[in-house]
Amino acid sequence: MLKLKYQHKLLEAGTDEAGRGCLAGPVVAAAVILPDDFEHPFLNDSKQLTEKKRQELRPFIEENAIAWAVSFIDERKIEELNILHASILAMHTSIQQLKVQPEFIVVDGNKFKPLDNIPYQTIVKGDAKYMNIAAASILAKTFRDAYMEKIHKDFPHYNWQKNKGYPTKEHREAIKQHGITKHHRKTFRLLPEQLRLEL
Predict the structure, then answer these.
(1) Sign (positive or negative) of CA dihedral 93, 99, 105, 108
(2) Digitized pLDDT (tens) for each residue of the chain, 199 residues in all
(3) What pLDDT is recorded for position 199?
(4) pTM score > 0.85 for this model?
(5) 3 DSSP assignment
(6) Sign of the dihedral defined by the CA atoms of residues 185, 162, 127, 10, in that order
(7) CA pair distance 51, 199, nearest whole angstrom
(8) What is the pLDDT, as a whole number, of residue 191?
(9) Would you tell me which of 16, 47, 71, 104 could form a disulfide with 137, CB atoms 3.0–4.6 Å apart?
(10) What is d(CA 85, CA 82) in angstroms, rounded to the nearest whole number?
(11) Is 16 exposed, middle or buried (CB count within 10 Å of its CB: 0-12, 13-18, 19+)?
């Protein structure tokens, strides 16, 4: 059973990102502040939910949260900063876009950088422990999935509507056959060593 939040004295936002391990597309983060009476029977870490359940939860979270925001960091910025720093930037940006500023932040994972002197706590597997992080993980994932489905139409060879840019065998085969697109992260290991592309 997920707890609502990490602490109860301060107004707390949960934040999480999606797309860190992908070969293509942006990294997307969300931040969510939930009210004290928030509950939903199947709110959980987005990775534990079916796509259908995530799609059902997204409008429920958007309508019932005190505040929520989502931010996208594109491939070029990921190349410039590296994926860890781009993920943290995405989380920072989503927190700063909240219409109510939090007094405390809980972060999924074990890496974060201070933001605007707001106290924070990193929590490994936080999206399976706290509702506000789980809600952020669902928004980040559903917004990113929708974006990957959209750009799939321009680059159907890679089947991003299904693999969402993750390094599946099929995605790597498509890179081998068709090369890379403007959406691919060139600094990532796009192919195993024996299939190297000359970039």
Answers:
(1) negative
(2) 899 999 999 999 999 999 999 999 999 999 999 999 999 988 877 678 999 999 999 999 999 999 999 999 999 999 999 999 999 999 999 999 999 999 999 999 999 999 999 999 999 999 999 999 999 999 999 999 999 999 999 999 999 999 999 999 999 999 999 999 999 998 887 876 545 555 4
(3) 46
(4) yes
(5) B
(6) positive
(7) 34
(8) 78
(9) 16
(10) 6
(11) buried
DSSP string, 81-92: H-HHHHHHHHHH
> How many CB atoms within 10 Å of residue 74?
15
> Which residue has 């559903």 as its token pair?
142
- The answer to whether residues 120 and 107 touch, using CB atoms and an 8 Å cutoff, is yes
Cα three-residue angle 73-132-106, rounded to 5 degrees:
70
Q: Which of 49, 31, 1 is nearest to 112 (CA)?
A: 31
Cα four-point dihedral sign 163, 154, 149, 22: positive
How far apart CA 158 and CA 66 sit, in angstroms, is 38
CA atoms within 13 A on the CB side of 78: 23
Q: Judging by beta carbons within 10 Å of its beta carbon (0-12, 13-18, 19+), is residue 3 exposed, middle or buried?
A: exposed
